[in-house]
Request: fold
Amino acid sequence: MAVHTEEIPISTKNEGDMIDLKEGLRSVARRSGITIGTLHCFVPGATGALTFIEFEPGLLGDFPTMLERIIPKGIEYGHDLAWKDGNGHSHVRAALIGADITIPVRDKDLYLGRWQTPTFLELDVRPRDRKLLVTVIGE
Reply:
């Protein structure tokens, strides 16, 4: 069994930035040389998240709207009372969505549905420089 690891740097400008990761992760899978296995992607930090969406304008607008409905910015969060940094909603959103995704690898490529796009979500209230940790395991 082989293991290949890389870091993918990401810079965001605003809360709500959504970044299509498909080609970056596809490149890591190809460089890994692994024909069949699993790719795991993880974002360190408590205010970034990873998910899958159809990366098209309608959903790029719908997703933040949904987050605002279920975890609104304008309410009181214990985190904000304790730390006074205004990103309590960011932490709750990230915890709900999750910090990692896993994708099967077949023939040195990602095994995804036609419109399924691995996506990074910036949920913090300020620009961030991050590094995604990517591990490919297989044969």
The two ends are 5 Å apart (CA to CA).
